[in-house]
Amino acid sequence: MRAFAEQVFASETKGEDVRDEISMFDVDDDCPIMHQEMAHHLHTEDDAEKRRRTFPHSSPHPQQVDTPTYLEVPDFQRVAIIGDYASGVTMDDFELSCKGVYRALTIREKYMRLAYQRFPLTTSEYLREIEGGSFKTEDLVQPGEERRSGGSFRGVISVTIRVPPCQSYAFASIHQSSQPLQSKGRTPLIPRTCQRIWDMSRTPQPKTYTHRRLKFLMSKFNVHEMLNEMEEMKELKLNPHRDFYNCRKVDTHIHAAACMNQKHLLRFIKRSYRVDAERVVHKLNGKEVTMKELFESLHLHPYDLTVDSLDVHAGRQTFQRFDKFNAKYNPVGASELRDLYMKTENHIGGEYFATIIKEVASDLEDAKYQYAEPRLSIYGCNPTEWHKLSSWFVKHRVFSPNLKWMIQIPRIYDIFRGRNFVPHFGKMLENIFLPVFNATIDPQSHPELSIFLQHVTGFDSVDDESKHSGHMFCTKSPKPQEWDVGKNPSYTYYIYYMYANIAVLNQLRRERGMNTFTFRPHCGEAGAITHLLAAFMTADNISHGLNLKKSPVLQYLYFLTQIPIAMSPLSNNSLFLEYAKNPLLEFHKKGLVVSLSTDDPMQFHYTKEPLMEEYAIAAQVFKLSTCDMCEISRNSVLQSAMSHEEKSHFLGQNYLKEGPEGNDIRKTNVAQIRMAYRYETLCYELNLIKEGVKSD
Amino acid sequence: MRAFAEQVFASETKGEDVRDEISMFDVDDDCPIMHQEMAHHLHTEDDAEKRRRTFPHSSPHPQQVDTPTYLEVPDFQRVAIIGDYASGVTMDDFELSCKGVYRALTIREKYMRLAYQRFPLTTSEYLREIEGGSFKTEDLVQPGEERRSGGSFRGVISVTIRVPPCQSYAFASIHQSSQPLQSKGRTPLIPRTCQRIWDMSRTPQPKTYTHRRLKFLMSKFNVHEMLNEMEEMKELKLNPHRDFYNCRKVDTHIHAAACMNQKHLLRFIKRSYRVDAERVVHKLNGKEVTMKELFESLHLHPYDLTVDSLDVHAGRQTFQRFDKFNAKYNPVGASELRDLYMKTENHIGGEYFATIIKEVASDLEDAKYQYAEPRLSIYGCNPTEWHKLSSWFVKHRVFSPNLKWMIQIPRIYDIFRGRNFVPHFGKMLENIFLPVFNATIDPQSHPELSIFLQHVTGFDSVDDESKHSGHMFCTKSPKPQEWDVGKNPSYTYYIYYMYANIAVLNQLRRERGMNTFTFRPHCGEAGAITHLLAAFMTADNISHGLNLKKSPVLQYLYFLTQIPIAMSPLSNNSLFLEYAKNPLLEFHKKGLVVSLSTDDPMQFHYTKEPLMEEYAIAAQVFKLSTCDMCEISRNSVLQSAMSHEEKSHFLGQNYLKEGPEGNDIRKTNVAQIRMAYRYETLCYELNLIKEGVKSD
Question: In a designed cystine with A610, which of A605, B63, B104, B669 is the match (CB 3.0 to 4.6 A)?
Answer without folding.
Answer: A605
